[in-house]
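Study this protein:
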Amino acid sequence: MPGVQGTDAPMYCSQQINIPPDLPDILKQFTKAAIRTQPNDVLQWSAAYFHALASGETPPVKERLEMPVATQKTDTGLTPGILAVLNRQLGPKKQISQSELEKKWKDNCLPEEQLESLLSIGSFGSEIEWLKFFAIACSSLSGNITQAMKVICEILTKDPEGGAARIPFPLFQDLYTYLAQIDGEISEEQIQSVFESLQYHVDKQDGMVMPRNFLSKDCPSLGSN
């Protein structure tokens, strides 16, 4: 018979092939996740994806297909979407180990040298306060501290996409103060001036602050003058 390699070659028909009932949906969800995330290394990302699913962890999947950001450095690999993924994976733990961060960074196919740079900027040790690292990472994507705080709000908010992007004012104060200290050129007087200006809006917004408040021309500049 043509195409048969010898008389002992096994023959199969569709009735003999057992397809696991969950397989089609698993492959469908995997394909959609890969298209949405656009990983630089598909094989490495795929291994991390299925390992996360098998372990009951958050997989390295973006919530939506992401377009390039105008203020973003195009060669970093890091994007707001990937930062959102990392925040879902690591944020609940508050405090993380460097080895844990390194693994998730690799799972998201991000360049090792960029992680080393961010760790150096924050002078982090073996134990890392996630939100501080997160703030520095947001700053690395932004043209200035104002845009960094906008990205922070958009990722940390519980508002729906396209909403006001509100976050608790104490959280804003902590992360803005931290980034201002890292910057080194923003005075304590300027920081307090920003807080005093925003307090007017916070009092009317149930203790929350949103980008619209600090992007207003009535708010003192967040950055160094």
